[in-house]
Amino acid sequence: MATQKKHDWADDEELDETTTTTDLPPPQKIQNKDGTTTIIEYSYNDNGQKVKTTRRVRYVVRREVVNPRVAERKGWAKFGASANDPAGPAPDTTSVGENIIFTPSINWRKDSKDESKDPNAQSMRDKLKDKKVKCRICNGEHFTARCPYKDTMAPIGEAGTADMAAGLGDEAPAGAASLAGAAGPGKKGSYVPPALRGGPGGRDGERMGGKYGERDDFATLRVTNVSEMAEEQELRDMFERFGRVTRVFLAKDRDTGLAKGFAFISFADRNDAIKACNKMDGFGFRHLILRVEFAKKAQ
Amino acid sequence: MRPILLAGHERALTQIKYNREGDLIFSVSKDQQICVWFAHNGERLGTYRGHQGAIWTIDVDPTTTILASGSADNTIRLWDVKTGKCLKTWDFPTAVKRVEFNEDGTKLLGVTEKRMGHLGTIVVLDVKVDVEAEQADEKAMTIVCEESKATVAGWSYLSKYIIAGHEDGSVSQYDGKTGDLIYNIPIHELNQPITDLQWAPDRTYFITSSKDKTAKLITAKDLEVLKTYTADTPLNSATITPKKDFVILGGGQAAMDVTTTAARQGKFEARFYHKIFEDEIGRVRGHFGPLNTVAADPTGKGYASGGEDGYVRVHHFDKGYFDFMYEVERERQNRLAAAASA
Predict the structure, then answer these.
(1) Which domains are assigned to chain A?
(2) pTM to 2 decimals?
(3) Per-residue pLDDT tens for A129-154?
(4) Looking at beta carbons, which residues of chain A come within 8 Å of B325?
(5) ipTM of the complex
(6) CB spacing of B7 vs A94 below 8 angstroms
(7) TM spans, by residue (chain B) (predicted)?
(8) CA distance linking residue B278 with residue B158, whole number of Å
(9) Smallest Cα–Cα separation from B175: which of B194, B195, B155?
């Protein structure tokens, strides 16, 4: 096996020797005392300059004893799906993975526990430390789905804006009360759309799937300045990176089928929507720069 | 170490086997083909085509002449290792979940599935380790598992016993010649199926892995549990490494059971335990799904793992692996060295 010694630039005194003669000196081989061989070769580079290459090579014979059966098997012809593959590993079936550091250790368990203290996990824990589960119906410390008043009461922020439902609804009771006061029994005779009619009793059956509409809104992004040629699937692919996308709506012209330039993307989780909003605002898509913001609740 | 990734299969791996010299790796998956690879560089030598269903199991005889495979198409097939030709097909009423040659390659056992009114059985076939020879059609012996079907089985030293692991977590010992049941001992938790059974090089003891999240080292002679290795995930496979006293366990939450994904990607790692001290000493990550099978190189230089993700990863150990020793082991070695020089 031939190994090339590390080439030191200081050794090549005459690497770029420019001459006009066309004949090259014959290559030389010199046996050195330390067992290495020096090979000197001459050639022309792309600029027509003569280049002298000096290499010092050491030949090492490494003998490996192999089971004769194993050696015989190495010469077997390939068959089946590999019959037409050339010698050596085929790139479509065989590849080399990234380096894995594996050193057994008695304290492995302890070491891996330290890993759990890595800053990422820690910061997440800090973030969640002060967070409490808060019911959107009765403000109790349980999930809304588990609320005992789930069927009898409506969420506090229901009559308010989408932002309240998102958990910023500390003033929710006040807002709800004022809105209900304005739209409810206050002005008699004026028409109030069913969606805005207040009161827990008056709402049942009038809003079909209303709860989901609410939920949609606070995790929905409005994307504007979308290219005409955009497809829903492309948008979905782009936004799915941030979390589960429940709905993609791309406004299209009925006649031409071209996009009108805006779209709505609903996420399953508001946090994903926030992330997507921050990341995708100003993103260059096709030839335009996207503008992403939270959708305003349709009133 | 840089693992070699073998992407010859399109579906989940079911079993990997090294041949006796450790230069070839045979892998089978649910995609109906068998692949054989050179262990040193991951070059594929060939494929064996013919099965019509998912292949559950593979084994190669000690001389690497013939290959046996069991499949969901209800057959055991015998192949010529060198050319990929199918030599013989045995038909069964149900799928074959495990095949294994005995130590001299004269007998082959197969474990058949319990299904469609048929009870699970362990069949023994006489095999001639010769590519040219005519193989017998008749089964030499059939053991019927009436209580709980066998999931895995293997031959003990000198083909004296057949050891089987069952779906209910028990391990049975059958006489290798007559097929009589000698012992049936509940080893793993009740109704937690045994998923793998692999032998130590001399076949006097073996390791079983189970869905109850443990692997156990058991003697073949009286089914005594020597060691227990406890993991935090259901196990699919376990193997004993030669040269170093380690065992490798593979498992992970099954793909259909995964409901949440943790930061550590669902425990899809090969776990190394010290065989004697039962401590976990390290893990090797890399797969994207649960590990379905792990196999140790009989020369002790490496191991291969196959996952639900369809990849085989072949690992050649670094120096650190061979240098690792417990303090007591090192002291013992020093004492022996001192005694030898004195």
Answers:
(1) 108-146 (no CATH), 217-294 (3.30.70.330)
(2) 0.64
(3) 666 777 777 777 788 777 777 777 76
(4) none
(5) 0.77
(6) yes
(7) none
(8) 28
(9) B155
